[in-house]
Amino acid sequence: MKRYAVRNLRMCTKDCLCLFVCPTGATDTENSVIDKTKCIGCGACADACPAKAISLVPYAYPPQQPKTPQVITALHYLGRSKASAESAALRLAEAAGDGMYRLMKGIAASERILGADLMREAGYMLPQSENTRAFLQNIQHDPDYADLPADTVNRLLELLYPDDTE
Amino acid sequence: MKSVCQVCGFVYDETVEKIPFSELPDDWTCPLCGAGKQEFAAEKKEPESIVPQIEFGEEHLKLSAGQLSALCANLSRACEKQYLAEEADLFKQLGEYFASKAPVPADADADELAAILRSDLAAYPAVRAVTDANADRGAARSLVWGEKVQRMVSSLADRFLREGAAFTKDTEVWVCTACGFIWIGDEAPEQCPVCKVPSWKFEKMQGRKTA
Ligand code: SF4
Ligand code: SF4
Asked: Which residues contact residue B114 at a Cβ distance below 8 angstroms, ignoring those fewer than 6 apart?
């Protein structure tokens, strides 16, 4: 499997062993993001890093685990009330004083995280998956979203599915 | 008798604590995670044999704008984890677009919010029964955490109905960015009581920007 190295900046302790061992200089960049075009995926940097800040990620991900229609429907049932709760909390935040404002923002943020998590388990774990591609393609023809930012969607399709031919 | 917090698992042991659980004041909260007294259950309660059934019909497959926004937020996070910065940002923008399409409730109604949260919480066992029947352990894991977090959120909404926002006035509101758990306190907890991530994974809710 073809892979390339990525560095987690929050974990990097600047011990710089990755600079010493990289055969192509890919780890040595002014913005600390490993140069994907130079990286050959040898893994020497990840092995050497004392902070375990480097991972090797694949260019292509395996297909997702299949989801049954029953599970998807049940998760969407919960997802719908999370979205309603989020809207209700945001509406309350708008009308509120400071203490209540922060509490309601917190509730909205929490419902958002729970809703996103349910979506992941309902078949949208990977941005590079068939499900995500179908979502991006179909939403462009949905009359409810006629003013969808088309450039954003097209750029995503281009970046995530480079092998697609129009 | 022992009572167990259904959010974080803290055990209130009457033989150690002296005060019987039932005699604790109504505004008593879990010393570990801050959940309300009513979120505790007696230890070793009979496993619920009858799970209330819910009809999960086809109509739930049509996603609301709010759900589509959550979908984009999920994909944005997934891109971030893969270090795909541009893709993460694009999904974020798309999420904001869908959020702007979500209907805004006519009134700011805290009773309504608390009711949505309670009924959502009550649906967990039925949803869990579906994931178990389909042997979907990934979904089950997400539901185990989700139920605890939702219980906390619901507990806070109930507390807000009883006491107003006084309990958040002179302190901070923190949200665990990994699982969504809400913590009220001056500092973020060392570890999330639900998903166990370290304190830096918590985000502080900022006050309203004054113009
Ligand atoms: S070896 Fe690890 S800790 Fe050191 S600079 Fe490289 S990534 Fe950072
Ligand atoms: S995987 Fe090899 S080539 Fe790529 S950055 Fe690490 S050491 Fe350099």
From this structure: B154, B157, B158, B160, B161
Q: So where are chain B's domains? A: 1-45, 65-101
CA-nearest residue, atom 8 of ligand 2: A22
Helix B65-81 to helix A98-121 angle (10° resolution) is: 80
Q: Which residues of chain A have pLDDT under 50?
A: 166
Please write the tens of the pLDDT for every residue from A84-113.
999 999 999 988 878 889 999 999 999 999
Give the tokens for residue A152. 């954003």
Whether A166 maps to a domain, the answer reads: no
Nearest chain A Cα distance for residue B36, angstroms: 15
Asked whether residue A165 is assigned to any structural domain, the reply reads no
Query: What ipTM did this prediction achieve?
Result: 0.92
pTM of the model: 0.89
Cα of A161 to nearest chain B Cα, Å: 12
Nearest to A81 among B57, B120, B206 (CB): B120
- What are the backbone dihedrals phi and psi of residue B189, each rounded to the nearest 5 degrees, phi first? -65, 155
The domain tally of chain A equals 3
Structural domain span for residue A155: 130-160
- CB pair distance less than 8 Å for A74 and B160: no
Domain boundary among A58, A88, A103: A58
Non-local (6+) Cβ contacts of A94 within 8 A are: B108
What would the pLDDT profile of B153-182 be if each residue is shown by its tens digit? Answer: 999 999 999 888 888 888 999 999 999 999
What backbone torsions phi and psi does residue B65 show, to the nearest 5 degrees?
Answer: -60, -40
pLDDT, tens digit, 9 for 90 and up, residues B60-88: 778 999 999 999 999 999 999 888 999 99
Q: List, chain by chain if needed, residues with CB within 6 Å of any ligand 1 atom.
A: A 7, 12-18, 49, 51, 53-54
Residue A70 burial class via C-beta count within 10 angstroms: exposed 0-12, middle 13-18, buried 19 and up: middle
Contact B91 A86 (CB under 8 A): no
Domain made up of B1-45: CATH architecture: Single Sheet (2.20)
Of B60, B75, B136, the CB nearest to A77: B60
